[in-house]
Design a protein that fits this description.
alpha/beta, 9 helices, 21% strand, globular
Length: 209
Amino acid sequence: MKKPGLVVVISSPSGTGKTTVCRQLIKRYRDYQFSISATTRSPRKTEKDGVDYFFMTTEEFLDLKKAGMFAETARYLEHWYGTPKAPLEKTVNQGKIVLLDIDIQGGRSIKKTMPNAVTVFLIPPSLTELKKRLKGRHTEEPSSLQMRLKKAVTELSSWSYYDYAVVNDELKSAVKQIHLIIEAERHKAWRLADKKYWKKSTRRLLGLG
């Protein structure tokens, strides 16, 4: 029986490793796909347009926002981020798992507009480790680093609004836990019963046509 598609939101304070976790899930499981977000911030050295993000000007972003082309939008540290709606819906309808690597504000917005989405909050093992990871990026100015750490403390209190919470202490373990969560969600009876193929598949299983 074909499994249903699913939107999975993975959020965390900056530097907790949500992008790395998403990439590992996609690498290990063939029916997982990454939802590419749009942003008005400048690309980092290793980032490519159309692969990591859709990079655009603020004017371009706001025009698309006004036209209703985003499933959610959020502003973070003076930059806009958003999830394009059309490719998201298309991929889910194909029975794929769509991973959304978005911040807390965006994650809560998705849950409001798409209540069937599964939300996972990734927690750092400690604030000391989070600070170490942010410094290890070598992409932050001291003032920006302090802003992100301050914001992280505030954001950590948002974990209770999510369906699941996973501590990203060891990457392999965190990836496995999230995969098990997703598989359990895909097998919930109400998700299967919500699909048109359910009656046909059941009849075939019972030898009724």
